[in-house]
DNA sequence: CTCTCCCT
């Protein structure tokens, strides 16, 4: 059967492209056979002789399965020509030429040997899943290939036809080979919820419909979350349907997951699953899929530093993948619980756009890249999440000011733990609490949910390690990597200190019953009856960010003394001068802070000059706007006109810019001031003018004069305020004052015509014009006819071009 | 009213 796989007909082409080029994209649908056929065929290529190939798989099961299958193809055991490598479980030997590795392993291999000696090529399987680690692995591999290993072959395999982003980073001329997949046809029906029916009600209704068809075998129902699954499982069990029902999700113990996947002959099975059934596991015997069309995804919020689970509609690629689960072994049926016309986004967002990037920043810093965006990414890590990750690493003391790693940071990166836990582990040395830190890290990293207090959970495990084998294994592994052995008795004394090392940003100060302010400035709550609800200080370990206030699920009490011992900066008294709105003046205090939290305050008798200056400017910046007098407003308008024409030569004096640059133009004048009223009285006009050179000041007066002399002899203020909104300056004057002006007056050496507001003797607008010449000819006769009767004492000559201009009445003139 | 998935 292997000879009939769709990928077979492309193998020669794949070999020939990689003989002469070092990059290739292979697009193949599920069932094409790419995972197992392509790596084996590449082993015999000339460029791979005497070297290894790495095959990257996104999941441990997939890696083992692929290795086992390929070894069997060669009539060998795993660990001979084909082996695998993953955390805590490897089978490779001296003969091994193809290593199937999981994502974390690839990154460690690259970090340990950036030359990748002995490796001829890397195959990225299932790249369309766009996991954070696959993206990082490819970025590092590209860096290696571009800098020191142009012979290194990189083959990216994807089930997605949309390869534009990949081509952008791999090169627009890269070869793309496409292969058909192989699957049975699946009939699609759309069954949106009726009225207000819930997802599980709708799924139950459609399940009845599906089971009526005699050809229906086992049914896979995909719902967004565990709660929906439990609800539907109950409903099916209470219904008269003669089926065997199994829940399936990642938090279920492994035995129950496996039970859900085992085929049974006697009764039809209904498997109610999360998205885990979409890609991670295959279930034999299924030919009906009921897809609710939703997924729950963790979205990282850079401003809170928290990850929130969000339910949203699936993308089209996932929906098709789910549907395909009905046609793996025979023709099938898929019921979609949404309307056919429901729009869906095309593909899943790459994880890099929505995940916590602290590990990515740690890895790239270890790689020697201080600014992660300098690498070549299929999708660049987003700015906000990068800054947030950098801030966390700074707080964990893993990152040095320049962006490199500290000593602690380098040790942490080698530990293969998330940065918070790694920082805790390396920091445990100074607390002489490494064994406890290992036990704690293993607990927090584990998948099991901690019920009740951390202290109890730890005590339980330390007393009876054999009952918690996964935790025990990981504890031992961490202890080995820290060069300690686990003692028989572990003291829990350093527990809260260790947690502060991992979660310095989540130190929490009580601000009410069960309400806490976190060091990152956010508010979080603990149930009012929680035993810690009345503690003044906690460290919040598990938090879920909700729409309103974040909720704390796991916490541990701490003392300020502990905090100060761990973070010497926290204990430092910091001079803090601030503006008091109530007192209308600057006040000073010395405070001890931890992030946004204030530990202690004492008044400060004397304020330093710099602190006062800084505080005053800061207070000014907090205000919605500067106090702008008319002369400053005019100056801003004049400057706006000039800087629009010559942005290189004239500064931008818009309000936003002035607010942002107080330090440069206002600072010299605030020295010694303590009250805001004094600041408000400063001559801002002169302060601004003084920043210009003398020649520039002269030029300003000449190009945009503040007054223009009308034919009447009167000097009239030009209004430049409209220039701030990109309009021309305005000159308002009585019509009679303009007699004799042949055309519109101008500024900026004739470049800009002024808008004239010609007024009646009662200063009512008669005409607004930027073309005076045409007004005299076309508009004036009409105005004259109408106004002569109403204002007989004022001159209304027939020829305004030659008439004597005047600001007063006829009589005074005679 | 906690909990999608994955990995060093």
Automatic annotation (TrEMBL):
Signal peptide: none annotated. GO terms for molecular function: helicase activity. Keywords: ATP-binding, Helicase, Hydrolase, Nucleotide-binding. SMART domains: DEXDc (SM00487), HELICc (SM00490). The keyword DNA repair does not apply. The keyword Metal-binding does not apply. Coiled coil: none annotated. Residues 15-179 form the Helicase ATP-binding domain. Residues 790-814 are annotated as: Disordered. PROSITE patterns: HELICASE_ATP_BIND_1, HELICASE_CTER. Residues 206-368 form the Helicase C-terminal domain. It comes from the Bacteria. This is ATP-dependent helicase HrpB.
